[in-house]
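Researcher: Please translate sequence to structure tokens.
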Amino acid sequence: MKTYNIILPVFNAGSSLEECINSIISQTFSDWELLVMDDGSMDNSIDIVSSFNDKRIKVFQQNNRGAYSARNELLKKVDARYVAFIDADDTWKSDKLEKQLKIHNMGYDFTCGNMQITCHDCQLDKNNFSVLHNIKHGEVSLKKLLSHKVNFIVQSTVSIKWSPLRDIGSFVEQKLASDFIQWIRFLDRGDGKFFYDDSILGKYRLHENNISRDMVKKYDEFALGIDKIKNDLTFTTLKLVDLRIKRNSFLSALKTKNIYRIIYYLTRHPLISFKVFFDQVLFLIRIK
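Model: Translation complete:
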């Protein structure tokens, strides 16, 4: 059994895939196996993966069914103590796995961390998630995660103990927010605590094709996905999730300039509305 299985779904990722895999091969911790699922790519992605002469890389293929279907299929093949996730657009620093294994050895089943943002000709270039979202190094509770203005868990930084993840079940298969829903399920089932590393663990590439940039759709899919797994959650977590959905709905109203819904939330949920405004102001200050 390997220490790590690394889950990498691939769809038309030819422009970034080689750099991504090289960052995995360059890890200072070497007891890992990379599981790659080509999700019906129509470019040269499968040729790029196949060009690596490393027995630790296992390649699979399926018809295009989406990234979370690919992740779920790969999870069926896991045989390791821990699972790490990476997207084909992203890269890791060479000591990423080594650092996270030390955190697991401290007793945490779930750890994630900071990434530097890289994007062409945009305001967020060379920023990082920890600074933008004011997340500090150390232990974080599920309550703090759900109370925060955004999901600050970057999927490509997640390292998680396999045995409890296996017991949780598959990712909800939809285009957006499925990862956040899975982390909520995992933390709610456990002790509700994880470790956040605010050092830079890698680079997150932001570009026009990043599916998560459409925040309104992401908020809608979060609510739909939560409805599918709400019976898995404790009453306390459901209350926190409900507050988050209300905040997301108000943010959606602001982003779409829906005056009726804005007025509704300002009158029915003034404290939630004020917090949303306050968080947005702080976010804009941090960007500058």
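Researcher: Any highlights?
Model: The radius of gyration is 19 Å.
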